[in-house]
Sequence to fold (149 residues):
Amino acid sequence: MHKTYLADEKDKIWLACFIDSEGSIYLSRRFNKKTHNVEYQAFIQIYNNYKPMIDRAAHLMNTSNVRERKRSLLEQLRRKQTWYTWVSERNHLILILEELMPYFMAKNEQANLMIEWIKSRRIKCKSKYDVEDEMYFIKLAKLNKKGPK
Fold:
């Protein structure tokens, strides 16, 4: 069983604000060539140029999924920074979202939808993905769209 280090309310507030401002809560969709089915995968991902911030978030969530992302040559000419990402583990996701739910401001709807989707997948017990899964994917994509809505 996964656990987090979010006993302190200040840490929960800090992490929820960090995800609200620098993170994404989303479903990834891909086509599996072996099974010829569409598959979905749930994620929280946080991006930042300052690695100690990402390291702290990873520590609070009791994971070590910090990745360094090198910029392409063109991006390096525009911005010289390297950025870091933290990506949630699937089994850990619902625990994190439920602990942070009261503290989200900007990503409250995304967190609620993701919790609903994860729970619906548990009830379906690994059955094939269906129209309902696609609807969750579309709703989350619309909520995560950048720019004016």
